[in-house]
Write a structure and sequence with these properties.
- The complex is a heterodimer of chains A (about 100) and B (about 500).
- Chain A has about 100 residues and is mainly α.
- In chain A, about 40% of the residues lie in helices and about 5% in strands.
- Chain A has a domain of about 40 residues: Glu-tRNAGln amidotransferase C subunit, N-terminal domain (Histone, subunit A, Orthogonal Bundle), CATH 1.10.20.60.
- In chain A, helix 1 crosses helix 2.
- The longest helix of chain A has 21 residues.
- Chain B has about 500 residues and is of the alpha+beta class.
- Chain B has 3 domains: about 290 residues, no CATH class; about 110 residues, no CATH class; about 60 residues, Arc Repressor Mutant, subunit A (Orthogonal Bundle), CATH 1.10.10.
- Chain B has 16 helices and 18 strands.
- In chain B, strand 14, helix 4 and strand 15 form a beta-alpha-beta unit.
- The longest helix of chain B has 20 residues.
- The relative contact order of chain B is 0.10.
- Classes of the chains: A mainly alpha (about 100), B alpha+beta (about 500).
- The interface between A and B is large, with 35 and 52 residues.
């Protein structure tokens, strides 16, 4: 089923992407192609096959609950476009 | 408690029945975060507990904290739930400044725990059951500090990012704010007993959101619900629910209807206000977290966790009744927290008298501890000290009155009973001859009163007792004084 332009706009908005009308056109087409491939996969008979969410067979990879040093604060804050000595700064959050 | 207490039918107000479903986030008492080795600690300087994983830096990969899983398993077992043999982590996608990755790692359609119940008790003693839907693992977000007047930015502290949480989602089985309050107290008690969470709501270790609706009494269909957030104390939950239930009922009675919304409780002002929400804010687009492998819990692992589960509060209270012969009410009080129950049991081993220990712990000890805001686990009068003191009453060395004097001194100096008794010369006189000698002196000094007594005015008996106690500075064994005086006067 083809994806609608509105659906693409909605997804773009959720992902905070500002798309031009041309891009919306383009992605509507590309995503529709991807989804039709999924539709094709869904025609395969999977009766008796367990649902998988991963391709790797590993399971239960754990850490022990032992602390290790964190980053120095100056390092943690270094890449932030806006900050002070202690905090990251972000534009005022309204309506919280 | 505030609200509807004392009404005939606690859960029905003006013909409407509230329906409440609670979602509780409990911070797990691990040493480190859920997916990285940063310490999980409250009150540290901002942004000093971060690393590439919890900052969401490119290329960093999460690795699950085994202890966090075991804590979740404990809580599932403690509430009679089903640990799932295979569970899956999922990304919950949304943008907010305190969530650096742009998604929260949580669990969605395959949580680690399903079902379970919380059995709790109202203040009236009535027992209630609330069924649980699920318990799942997830990470916490950071903290936004809102700008002061004139500032153009919000500050962000990411220390809390990645702190392990379990979310305990209950069915909408709760029918009044009082039930919600009692449910939360019980939940906190179980979390504390199992060592899973400190349960400190004021520190945000326990957080509660509520789904609230009302329906006309007798109607089966639920009304439209609202979600109330930001309640940060147990009493706050009760107050907020009272507020919202009243608001919904008044709205319906005046011809309006409830619209679905999220409300933020303002504790200071005592009101809940609608939150402005964008229409797509609940479109979280969950999908399985590709950076984490599935969590598989074997039967052996589950049984190991079950074996290591401490005795739970209800079982402990029952044991207190059967093993120590104390009343059920007292057992409830003494098992309110694990620290208190531990303290009491230690007192019993030294006191030898479980009932006396129960009385002393509940009245004398808790009186002092509550008044001074002390922590029982570290309080200077240790349980062996209190137990020793109580044993001295049992052996006749001290009267109850004298023991209270000694106890008071213990709460001041933290010294042992033996030392205080020696220093104050507080030894109970339980020696027949010594007491008889004093009685003889006193009777000889008050022939009038003796005559009065013998002529039938036995109310002067108290006068003699008082005189003997005065002469012995309160140290005569009162039972013996009563007995010997009676013999003398009647004989």
């Amino acid at each position: 089923m083809p994806l609608s332009k509105e659906q693409v706009e909605h997804i773009a908005k959720l992902a905070r992407l500002n798309l031009t009308p041309a891009e919306i056109e383009k992605y509507t087409h590309e995503l529709t192609v991807i989804l039709s491939y999924i539709d094709q996969l869904q025609t395969v008979n999977t009766e008796g096959v367990e649902v998988q969410n991963q391709f790797i067979t590993a399971e239960n990879v754990f850490r022990e609950d032992v602390p290790e040093p964190s980053l120095p604060r100056s390092e943690a804050l270094r890449n932030a476009p806006d900050r002070d000595e202690e905090y990251f700064h972000v534009p005022r959050v309204i309506g919280d | 408690m505030v609200g509807y207490q004392g009404e005939e039918k606690l859960s029905v107000v003006n013909g409407f029945e509230p329906v409440i479903g609670l979602e509780v986030h409990a911070q797990l008492a691990t040493d480190t975060k859920i997916f990285c080795s940063c310490r999980s600690s409250y009150g540290e300087p901002p942004n000093t507990l971060t690393c590439p994983v919890c900052l969401g830096l490119p290329g960093a990969l999460p690795v699950l904290n085994k202890k966090a899983v075991e804590f979740a398993m404990r809580m599932i077992l403690a509430t009679g739930g089903q640990i799932q043999p295979r569970s899956v982590f999922a990304r919950k996608n949304y943008f907010y400044p305190d969530l650096p990755k742009g998604y929260q790692i949580s669990q969605f359609d395959k949580p680690v725990g399903l079902d379970g119940v919380i059995k709790y008790r109202l203040e009236s003693g009535e027992e209630k059951v609330c069924r649980l839907i699920r318990i799942h693992l997830e990470e916490d977000a950071g903290k936004s500090l809102h700008p002061e007047a004139g500032e153009a930015y919000t500050r962000v502290d990411l220390n809390r990012c990645g702190t392990p949480l379990i979310e305990i989602v209950a069915h909408a089985d709760i029918r009044s704010p009082q039930e919600a309050y009692a449910y939360l107290l019980k939940l906190k008690q179980i979390l504390q007993y199992t060592g899973v969470c400190t349960g400190d709501m004021e520190k945000g270790h326990l957080r509660c959101d509520a789904n609230v609706s009302v329906r006309p009494e007798g109607q089966e269909k639920f009304g439209t619900r609202t979600e109330v957030k930001n309640m940060n104390s147990f009493k706050g939950v009760e107050r907020a629910l009272n507020y919202e239930i009243t608001r919904q009922i008044e709205l319906i009675r005046s011809g309006g209807s409830v619209t679905q919304a999220t409300l933020l409780w303002d504790e200071k002002r005592g009101v809940a206000e609608m939150m402005r929400t964008k229409e797509e804010s609940h479109d979280y687009r969950y999908f399985p977290e590709p950076d984490l492998v599935n969590l598989v819990v074997s039967h052996d692992w589950m049984e190991e966790v079950r074996r290591n589960l401490p005795e739970l509060p209800d079982a402990r209270a029952e044991r207190f009744v059967s093993a120590y012969g104390i009343r059920e009410y007292d057992a409830q009080v003494l098992t309110a927290t694990r620290d208190l129950a531990d303290y009491y049991e230690e007192v019993v081993t030294h006191a030898g008298d479980p009932k006396a220990a129960s009385n002393w712990v509940q009245t004398e000890l808790l009186g002092v501890i509550n008044a001074a805001g002390e922590n029982i686990a570290t309080y200077k009068v240790r349980p062996n000290m209190l137990g020793e003191l109580i044993s001295k009453i049992g052996s006749g060395e001290l009267s109850g009155k004298m023991a209270k004097i000694v106890f008071e001194e213990m709460t001041v100096s933290g010294r042992k009973a033996g030392e205080i008794i020696k220093e104050k010369g507080l030894v109970q006189i339980s020696d027949d001859t010594a007491i008889l000698k004093i009685i003889d002196e006193i009777l000889a000094a008050s022939p009038d009163n003796v005559a009065k007594y013998r002529s039938g005015k036995t109310n002067v008996f108290g006068f003699f007792v008082g005189q003997v106690m005065k002469a012995t500075k309160g140290q005569a064994n009162p039972e013996m004084v009563n007995k010997l005086l009676k013999e003398k006067l009647d004989g």
